[in-house]
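Hi P.,

Sorry for the delay on this. The queue was packed all week, but I finally got your sequence through. Input first:
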Amino acid sequence: MKKNKKIKSDLAVIYARSTRGSEDDIADQLAMCIEFCDHVGLTPAHVFMAGGSSTTTECKRSVRETIEFCLDEKNDIAALVVPSIDRITRNTNEFVGIRNRLKARGISLIGRIV
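Then the structure:
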């Protein structure tokens, strides 16, 4: 007899980054992600934000903290929602590595929700 796999939660993490340093830009991204979560039945559990280019130390640290939070099993995250994939990184190798780490834990990476 097969064991039932644990059903993943409906919890999502939202990551937003403003390249213009505008609070309005971040607010728009967050509103878009929250609306998307509501539409597909996800519950935003945590929000991570950063400002500036994806190459800055602050942004890289924020992305790393976001991914670590998602991968921590006690947080039971089902999805990482970003307004656009390039909010995480523009480096293809980094993106593939992040996507694979999330996928290995059953976490969806959802982007380009405009």
